[in-house]
Amino acid sequence: MVWNPGQELFGRRYIIERKLGEGGIGITYLAKNRRGELRVIKTLREQILNHPQWIPHQDKLRHDFRDEALRLALCRHPHIVQVENVFDEENLPCMAMEYIEGEDLGKRITNKGALPEAEALQYIRQIGEALILVHEKGLLHRDLKPSNIMMRAGKPEAVLIDFGLARQFISGGVQRHTESLTPGYAPPEQYAPIEQRGEYIDVYALTATLYSLVTGQLPMPAPARLQNFTLQAPKELNGSVSYRVNEAIMKGMALNYRFRPQSVEELLDLLGANPIPPTQPVISRPNTLPSWECAHIIPGISGRVALSPKEDILASVARSVIHLFSSTTGELLRTFTGHSDWVSSVAISSDGQILASGSRDNTIKLWSVTTGKEIRTLTGHSDPVVSVAISSDGQILASGSLDKTIKLWSVTTGKEIRTLTGHSELVVSVAISSDSQILASSGGDKTIKLWSVTTGKEIRTLTGHSNWVSSVAISSDGQILATGSHDKTIKLWKISTGKEIHSLTHFDGVWSVAFTPDGNGLAAGDHSGNIKIWRRS
Fold this sequence. Notes:
This protein is of the alpha+beta class and 537 residues long. It has three domains: 8-98, Phosphorylase Kinase, domain 1 (2-Layer Sandwich), CATH 3.30.200.20; 103-271, Transferase(Phosphotransferase) domain 1 (Transferase(Phosphotransferase), domain 1, Orthogonal Bundle); 303-489, YVTN repeat-like/Quinoprotein amine dehydrogenase (Methylamine Dehydrogenase, Chain H, 7 Propeller), CATH 2.130.10. A hairpin with a 3-residue loop joins strand 25 and strand 26.
């Protein structure tokens, strides 16, 4: 049954104006309430309820519909469509919602193309704030996409609609997923019938929505990406996308949910969509110890860095390309290309002649710094190589991987020496002391481990960071260990005792840290795409 204009519903509380649209199961109408205010009436299509395939499931359909209304009613937020009433009409469950005059973001980018980054981030922040409330209520939206975000006419306000696929969740709990999803916006785990549920499901979809807003294109569906088809970075499709937003989108759309931001708050922090006070980095330190202060910043390049111990050279990564800069002036010197996937880490030998790079293509490459030519490729890790380090004598290369292992290699022959195991998550960073006796490693398990290079035995484990420890570096005198973390801090440790001696606070997560040869300088790359040079005073 289709309701015609003038049809009275719920004891004349609503009068139908016209049909707005219909989907596979539901149908919506524009109506007016007794105060003459426009409302949207949503109900189930009678043809679906009476279809032979759905007749055995009529009760469930009605129950799910009322659940959607209840879920919406629980989420009172200016950027979530509001429910005014829930009622039955002619044995059909109905809900009356506010009418949002305007267009959805799907139509906007279809008609106008990609949005300016600042505008897109404004809408993502608004919807992100709404999602935070949804998650606090123990719900996942599970169908975030541009067409489910309405724009209020004449106002820069985004409103989240359509909670038809929303479900309760307990973070980390294993639950059954419905078959309904939207390709391009649904993460891999939503395709599995039974899988863990967490906020990271909506994080993927919210990030994919941002991908569409800044590129004007539908993201590649997860199943295709799982078949080794590469998702194009937003910046490749739209050069005006900032490095920070590009990096955050690729992280938010990680196929493995463990590598995504685990909450919407974390994603907004990565995007810089949360207001940040315009102040300088805060340094916390005991009064009796030397202080560190930010000397200068090189803007607009990736946070993965390495400083040459010999020359005024800083290596930095941009996707699968490696750049060499002057660490004094910031001038670009040369680039290296050859990896088939993103480069995760770079290191320069103590004589400044060899550069090592670890990549998501599971390989390590050794390069000549002077000529830019590849020397050799090392293989052996079963998963992407996340970190590399070269010993001061240039004989040993250490590599950390997503496979949770650390491998030691001979630089001269390229042969594997030994494998170290002990981290419970991926090994994010490795560093070797100047005397080649101690190896430091950090992991997704939030710990730092010190190892004997000679025996491969673990010496001690350091704890104190509240998030991933993204990078480790050892000073040239072998006395101080620096660690950078996603918790927005750099910590300095005394290697002989394992005691923390400094904590330098950033306003963004730290990707990488590296000491200058004299031990009085420290380069720190952060999520913003900036490199900060710290000097000990």
